[in-house]
Specification:
- By secondary structure, this protein is largely without helices or strands.
- 0% of the residues lie in helices and 6% in strands.
- The protein contains no helices and 2 strands.
- Strands 1-2 form a two-stranded antiparallel sheet.
- A hairpin with a 6-residue loop joins strand 1 and strand 2.
- The protein is elongated and about 40 Å long.
- The model has no long low-confidence stretch (mean pLDDT 84).
């Protein structure tokens, strides 16, 4: 049986020295092509807000 990843780090997926290391995905900015910071949702090059981070009190439909 397979289980989803819980992010415990025991497999080495989060350790840059491990052969199993998986770098975090990059999110491209649709305005300038730069990289969007996954934590803040803001482009590091032009400052465009690509998305509102989870937990900022904004809900869908409002």
């Amino acid at each position: 049986m397979c289980y989803p990843c819980t992010g415990c780090g025991r497999c080495g997926k989060f350790d840059p020295e491990s052969p199993l290391y998986t770098p975090p995905p990059t999110i491209p900015c649709l305005e300038c092509g730069g990289t969007v910071d996954a934590a803040t949702g803001t482009c590091t090059s032009c400052g465009n807000v690509a998305f509102v981070p989870v937990g900022d009190g904004v809900s869908a439909g409002k």
